[in-house]
Amino acid sequence: MSRIFLTLVFVSVALYGCGGGSSNKNSNATASTSSSGENSSANNQSSSSEASSPSTKGQLVYEKPLGGSRFACADCHALDETGQLDAEGFRRAGHPIGDALRRPHFKNTQLGTFVDAANSCLDEWMGTNITWNNNSEDYLALKTYLTTQDTGNGDAPALTFTLKTTDTPTEQGRVEAGRITFNQTCAVCHGENGEWANNPRGIDIRYITNSAADAAAVASKVRRSGRSNSDVYEGLVGGIMPFWSAERLSDQELADITAFLGAATLNTGTTPGTPVPTPPPTTEACDATSPRIGQMAALRTLQHGVSGTATIVDNCTIKITNFNYDGQGVDVEFYASPNIAEFAINGGNYYSITPNRNFLRQSQPYVNEEITITLPAGSSVDNLGAISLWCVDFDIDFGSGSFQ
Ligand code: HEC
Ligand code: HEC
């Protein structure tokens, strides 16, 4: 009985998860697709604003991606909002945190202190190894900054968030309304109008058509993205994109955004079914100062015939030569971690360095090919000890190796 059950689980993973290859997405991405670029709001400070007062330092803690993360607190939390928009005109996925130090509890009562809530985000949303305690320098600086910015006093009300189902909303979507809402919400990470040229992080969503399957994929991603074995959120589907709760995005707004994304003419440069073009080249040349340059990792075969050799080329480039893979996964991305053991840990410290499900083409196998990965802004080769070809939806290592 239990063996039958296990077999069924395995088969369904193989069909609908990483093993299927039955995706209906356009999947002709070129292998040299890179994912690099500017980090949106997080990069705006100049080096001359380096910390002197604790409050200035706290502002950096809030605005800078910490610990090699791709995101900063500020990417997902405004300090405050007027009519759901922050000072930059965005609505972030998480609630504002300007008064959070005065709240009685966090994350739907599951966490009792601000520092625990921050640690949960540092781990699950930012993918860092950082754990603050009440005396941590960065935590104290952030606390000072939030306190100096906070004009209220006394107890602040606890907030709640409601995780929606992954069902496609039944509301009728409106394209133009969706464009406006997209630009207030999703554009923080996916670029104004979803256009590649505006895309700050190289996450391509232009392939989305107006098919029911794509609408379902968008709904699932928006409503339930996040670490699937999370300690504080139930039923997330994987990924580092934050989910949008009922409080942060209505079903009507989701339907509107989906209609907008499905209207291919708005997605400059592509119509459904055409290959995803190569992204614009990085404007900044990459330094070649890291002592890690030249280190190599041999990908050991675990699943789907993965093999190849990864080499650190410069501070932001990894080349994979003699790459083999049967192409049968759905959302398969290259992941990095400080050491190879992390890939074997459920919810370990690993993160995507090619955050785009079309980075690799699907269905057609790779045979001794060469692939170039440009690390996303915020990632560094310095703390990159191992690399894996990773099945995102099911957290499975298809093949990995240690740099040495
Ligand atoms: C990639 C997005 C993301 C990043 C980055 C992020 N968070 Fe969060 N955070 C969330 C989401 C999603 C929630 C849960 C939903 C909500 O509160 O609206 C949350 C919840 C919280 C809460 C609980 C709010 C409450 O009252 O329940 C706090 C506090 C918080 N985050 C602080 C931080 C801090 C501090 C940082 C930076 C160190 C940070 N977060 C980074 C996405 C993020
Ligand atoms: C804080 C950054 C952030 C915001 C805001 C954000 N996303 Fe994402 N999104 C990502 C990242 C990163 C990925 C890559 C997959 C992953 O790891 O989750 C992604 C992936 C996706 C995908 C799947 C692409 C693929 O093929 O894997 C869709 C669809 C998507 N986002 C839609 C949206 C929509 C719609 C919104 C607005 C309601 C939105 N996102 C807001 C960061 C973000």
Topology:
Elements lengths: L1 H15 L37 H10 L9 H4 L37 H11 L12 H13 L25 H10 L2 H4 L21 H13 L26 H12 L33 E6 L5 E8 L2 E9 L6 E6 L13 E2 L13 E9 L11 E6 L4 E7 L2
Antiparallel strand pairs: 1-2, 1-8, 2-3, 3-6, 4-5, 4-7, 7-8
| Biggest β-sheet: strands ordered side by side in the sheet | 5-4-7-8-1-2-3-6
Task: Name the overall outline.
Answer: globular
Tally of DSSP β-strands = 8
Structural class: alpha+beta
Low-confidence stretches: 1-51, 270-283
Characterization of this structure:
This protein is of the alpha+beta class and 404 residues long. It folds into 3 domains: 2-35 and 288-402, no CATH class; 41-149, Cytochrome c-like domain (Cytochrome Bc1 Complex, Chain D, domain 2, Orthogonal Bundle); 175-266, Cytochrome Bc1 Complex, Chain D, domain 2, CATH 1.10.760. Helices cover 23% and strands 13% of the residues. It contains 9 helices and 8 strands. It has helices spanning 2-16, 54-63, 73-76, 114-124, 137-149, 175-184, 187-190, 212-224, 251-262, and strands at residues 296-301, 307-314, 317-325, 332-337, 351-352, 366-374, 386-391, 396-402. It has an 8-stranded antiparallel β-sheet with strand order 5-4-7-8-1-2-3-6, with no helix packed on it. Helix 2 crosses helix 5 (137-149) and helix 6 packs across helix 9. The radius of gyration is 21 Å and the shape is globular. Residues 1-51 and 270-283 have low confidence and may be disordered. Bound molecules: heme C (2 copies). Residues 71, 75-76, 93, 185-186, 188-190, 203, 205, 218, 221-222, 225, 239-242, 244, 249, 257, 331, 352, 355, 357 line the site of one heme C.
